Amino acid sequence: MNAQYSRSCVRLKNAIFYAYHGVGEAEHKVGARYEVDAELYFDFSVAGQTDSLRQTVDYEQVYARISKVITSRKFYLIEAVAKKIADELMLDFPILESVHIKVRKRNPPVGGVCDFAEADYFLERPKHTP
User: Fold this and answer.
1) Burial class of residue 83 in the structure, from the number of CB atoms within 10 Å of its CB (0-12 exposed, 13-18 middle, 19+ buried)
2) Domains in the chain, number
3) pLDDT in tens, 80-118
4) Does residue 3 have a pLDDT over 70?
5) In what helix (H) or strand (E) does residue 118 lie, and over which residues does it extend?
6) Using an 8 Å Cβ cutoff, are 42 and 95 in contact?
7) Which candidate, 100, 96, 90, 95, places its Cα nearest to that of 121?
8) Is 1 inside a domain boundary?
9) Contact 75, 113 (CB under 8 A)
């Protein structure tokens, strides 16, 4: 069989957290519901062949890392939350080639009816050129 490269994705969809982010003082006191989608891009062909957790990303650990980022400190902006999650996942999981993070704040204080505000962040490792 010829050597092939595979780019695969593991997704966590709609992970839900309660946290205290926002610009307004009330947001820091009352808190809000946040939802996170994480798309983790890497080659999991070896894990697919071996059925070994050591050859992939343990999404229980990914969830725990996201939870720690989103609940351990207060951010003003969901953009900052999304970037911090992406940065931490890339540091913690060297197998990852890129991550795509979405952070949604349910019922944001916009002065009207709005389901959610969402920050969408994509981070990719630099490509090594020979």
Assistant:
1) middle
2) 1
3) 999 999 999 999 999 999 999 999 999 999 999 999 999
4) no
5) strand 116-124
6) yes
7) 100
8) no
9) no
92 falls within a domain? yes
Residue 103 to residue 38: CA distance in whole angstroms: 9
Is residue 74 annotated as a catalytic residue, yes or no? no
* Count of Cβ atoms closer than 10 Å to residue 20 Cβ: 16
The domain spanning residue 44 has which CATH number? 3.30.1130.10
Q: 30: domain range?
A: 8-124
Backbone φ and ψ of 26, nearest 5° = -60, -35
Average pLDDT value over all residues in the chain: 91
Residue 73 lies in a domain: yes
Q: Specify the pLDDT at position 130.
A: 60
By percentage, how much of the chain surpasses pLDDT 90? 75
Bridge partners for 8 per DSSP:
42
The answer to whether residue 1 scores a pLDDT higher than 50 is: no
Of 29, 74, 105, 127, the catalytic one is: 105
